[in-house]
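Example record

The entry below shows one chain as it appears in the dataset: sequence first, then structure tokens.
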Amino acid sequence: MPVDLRACLTALVAGGGSDLHLKVGRPPLGRFDGVLRPILPGLPANTPEDTEAVLRLMLRTEEAARTFAEDNELDLAHHEEGVARLRVNAFRQRGLVSIVCRVVPDAPTSLDDLGLPRAIAELADEERGLVLVTGITGSGKSTTLAGMIDRINRAKPCHVVTIEDPIEMLHQDRVAVINQREVGSDTRSFGQALRRVLRQDPDVILIGELRDEETVRAALSAAETGHLVLSTVHTIDAAEAVGRLVGFFPPHQHTQIREMLATTLQGVVSQRLVPLAEGKGRMAVCEILRATGLVKDILRDAGRTGELNAVIAEGAHYGMQTFDQALCRFVLDGVVSREDAMRAAARPHDLDLLLRADGRSGTSMADVADQARRGNVAAGGSPLAPAALPVV
């Protein structure tokens, strides 16, 4: 019996799942609260014919079919009418087709509804510069970016151009005009789209991912010329994001790129998902870096990148917070268990010191973080409010 894609997706969405996995030799699997399990009881294992049939259903053009035949992998979008929009990656493993489908909401969720810190809304309100959202795959980066574009769309009479592979969240024009371009169908590549985007009179440019030297240079150049550029990088924190962007370039250009970063970067939002204490659902914890004068000085000096975490820990006045500060608040509020927080912490020892402070004294979080860095036992603290992001 062929796999019923529609029935699997219906069950996935109804159960609050995020991803559908189709692999030969296994029944259809869904990711629920971060864990893979069978999507429906009693379904047989997929056959090679099953996954190939689903792929044929999703391939919208002959060009897409040729690309998969030549490359043995393909990113694409699929809309199952009345059920869900999907971001799909199809690939071959051991000669057989496997497919992973990520559920994408039909409309963006506002930053307020996402419960994200005010600093992220302030980054979306910037007139120019580069804003990065980082994290591993599935950490909610696209949801956050969509919320930022939605905020711009509701407030600014401007032109937004997105370049995505594939298009994920669909935006309807409100106050802004939004043109969404998909790599493969609307443009040949990120590089080609970025070479022409400045001729399209954009105010805001969203680049799905900074993945090579060409896209990074184009993003920095657009930010330098007065545009607001939003994008993602697959890194775990702000310091690693800086290193990744600089590392795309040959060593003799590093000084130039660091100067461009120092003059254009507005902020970095890094996200990690943590299970909720009651065992149902996950929330995103955010590290937030804002581009203060001190941060700009650090970006210019390769030897000072390691100072960024300390600056973030002491930057509450600017809306900055570390992962561990946010996790501390989650634990103290009973939203996340101590054990899960420790697993997600950037520096478990520091988080332990912050939790011992338990938020009851007037000592600032920066003081506690400083004591944690020095290896002292903290005596009190007042953690910052964390970011909370529901993940579909």
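Notes for this example: Residues 141-155 form the longest helix (15 residues). The radius of gyration is 22 Å.
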